[in-house]
Specification:
Order of helices and strands of chain B: HHHHHHEH
Distance between the termini of chain A: 38 Å
Number of strands of chain B: 1
Structural class of chain B: mainly alpha
Helix content of chain A: 55-70%
Number of helices of chain B: 7
Largest sheet of chain B: none
Oligomer: heterodimer
Largest sheet of chain A: none
Strand content of chain B: under 5%
Order of helices and strands of chain A: HEHH
Shape of chain A: flat
Number of strands of chain A: 1
Strand content of chain A: under 5%
Helix content of chain B: 55-70%
């Protein structure tokens, strides 16, 4: 049965648990002092193309490979997990459906009839 | 008389005949994205080659928004209607959103190591993204406790609805608070170099398609699982559980 009271209670509890960390995080983020001499305008607002040969102090290649590798390992891993889950659920469901469609004697009725004095 | 559940088909997952076509479209899009990123888009002037993480990082964040929003909206509808179909969609959205949140939280620091010299900083956008991930991770943990009862389902749905509140905070945090996170797309700066745009747009399309496919497939499996649970009750009532 639909219960507004229970739903409101669940929403209130979930809200309290969610909003408290958000408020703390917001306060914490606002409290962060910017680096010395830094202004809000210092952050990157555009990406420009390099012209000529590329020179880098910190090689970004390994970081790039790890990032792209992680993305596809994570996505493929999740797809494999879904595949396994689907196979398992379909297998169990098939067994149960076959058992339910099989003509059978109702054990509970039989049992109660057997013990019944009448 | 009510038809036995074992003879009903309305609790089965929907069949989607275009699924193989969409999977092929996804694979083609992936090839096009990789070609655009590594073959066409130029290397960035300040950050060098590591900036190419941006083409997967930003669309992943978008896919995360998509997953979490689907989860929260479906949870709200579930709370109002108690229709199990919406609960299945909510679980699917939360799982897929969390997957892409993880991708964002791993690829971002790898980019930051080169750009900022550190893997992590308590920048408002990073902090609020981590928080959203934790809220929906809590949702998934709550739902993973074996056979979940009505109370747990309602509480988890409430958690997802309130988790939605964090999404606009993530989005506007770069504008409202001082931080170091780039504002290339949402800011008023110079934006992207024209040769970088096609790679980003195709990647956005790819991740949208991927997220939608994963949500749909996960929701379908959850519907099958719900049918299994319902049939299990029917089997128990008929005294068949020992046989299966």
């Amino acid at each position: 049965m639909f219960s507004y009271r229970r739903s409101s209670r669940a929403l209130f509890l979930a809200g309290a648990l969610t909003l408290c960390p958000i408020a703390v995080a917001a306060a914490f983020a606002q409290d962060q002092e910017p680096a010395e001499g830094a202004t809000a305008g210092d952050r990157a607002t555009s990406f420009k193309a390099v012209s000529g040969a590329v020179k880098e102090d910190v090689p970004g290649g390994p970081l790039l490979v790890i990032a792209y590798g992680f993305v596809w390992v994570a996505v493929l891993g999740y797809v494999l997990r879904l595949g396994r889950l689907q196979t398992r659920v379909e297998h169990s469901l098939g067994d149960l459906e076959r058992a339910l469609q099989k003509p059978h004697v109702d054990k509970a009725t039989d049992a109660s009839a057997a013990v019944s004095p009448g | 008389m009510t038809q036995p559940l074992s003879q009903r088909t309305d609790t089965q997952g929907p069949v989607f005949p275009w699924l193989p076509l969409l999977v092929v479209a996804c694979a083609l899009c992936l090839c096009a994205t990789l070609y655009e990123i590594f073959g066409v888009a130029p290397v960035e002037l300040q950050m060098g080659i590591v900036q190419k993480i941006f083409y997967f990082h930003v669309p992943s964040a978008y896919a995360m928004y998509l997953g979490f929003t689907v989860s929260a909206v479906a949870s709200a509808v579930f709370l109002a209607t108690r229709n199990e179909r919406w609960d299945a969609i909510a679980i699917a959205g939360a799982e897929v959103g969390s997957l892409f949140c993880l991708v964002v939280l791993v690829t971002g620091p790898l980019w930051a190591r080169k750009a900022w010299g550190t893997f992590w900083t308590w920048d408002p956008r990073l902090t609020t993204t981590l928080l959203a991930g934790m809220v929906f991770f809590a949702y998934l943990v709550l739902r993973s406790f074996g056979s979940v009862g009505e109370v747990e389902k309602r509480f988890a749905a409430g958690l997802a609805v309130f988790g939605l509140l964090d999404l606009p905070i993530i989005h506007f945090s770069v504008q409202r608070w001082r931080g170091t996170h780039p504002t290339v797309i949402t800011g008023n700066g110079g934006g992207l170099h024209p040769d970088m745009r096609p790679a980003l747009f195709i990647s956005f399309f790819l991740f949208t398609l991927l997220a939608a496919l994963l949500i749909w497939q996960r929701a379908r499996i959850e519907r099958l699982r719900q049918r299994y649970e319902a049939l299990e009750i029917e089997a128990a009532e008929r005294g068949l559980l020992e046989e299966t």
